[in-house]
Amino acid sequence: MSDKYSTDQFDPTRERQEALQEDEISLIDLWRVIIKRKKMIIGSLLLSLLLVGAWIAITKPVYESRAVLGIGQVVQMGQVVQVEASQLLVQRLKEEYRVKDDSEGEQKFPMIKEVKTMEKSLPNGVEIIAQAYEAQEAQKFLVDVAAKVIKKHQTLFDIGRTEQQRQLESLQNEHDRIEQALSLIEHRVSSLVGSEASLAGLLTLQKDLLLQRLPQIEQQQIAVRLAMSELQSRPSVLLRQPTLPIKPVKPKPALYLALATVLGLMLGVFGAFFAEFVGKTRARMAVN
Question: Are 230 and 136 part of one and the same domain?
């Protein structure tokens, strides 16, 4: 009999069954509490949805307009130079429009929400995002900001273009001077007599040097003209015009109501168990 008692006492299968029974009892008890306090849980859910719904109703919608600016560039002395570096433009706009800066008070709409470079997808691209309480207002504000940037960039591009034109004119003037010098040398050589053969030789040597310089000038002219073409030099342009949003970016009713549902259920269930605990504690104290 003692062996049988010992075997039953340390039987792991029996222990697992008892543990499962205890778990089942606990889950049943929990479910009973939820059923018993369902009004509290439903009330918590409805209150949460009501509060969030009221907040959504009184909150002004915020619309977002987006534009993409392609920064212009000018080729000078064989090097590509942006009219304004992307990072410099981003930082300048952030400082000018106080992007994410509340040090002087809260920003008022319309405002620039974000300015960032697009190095991975577009090396010379800068994305600008504006926000306002109305779709047309956000778009108009961003149009004005982009126009101001492009106007400044156009001035810088014109300066670079003027320098290119000046370089091209300088090369053309040098080319014309060499042509005139060659004409004079040929006339001088033809007028010399045999007694001045040494001078004619010097003039011929100078003529050869000038003739060697002409192809170099022509190559430089071709390079400058190529640099002035749209393939290498171009002004800043809006690659994407400021958009007219069709729906607000916030508030997001579906997301907020889903979160309110989860939060309301969690608070309701927690409150139900807490109320059940308080009730049982009071009952035990009354019996004692």
Answer: yes
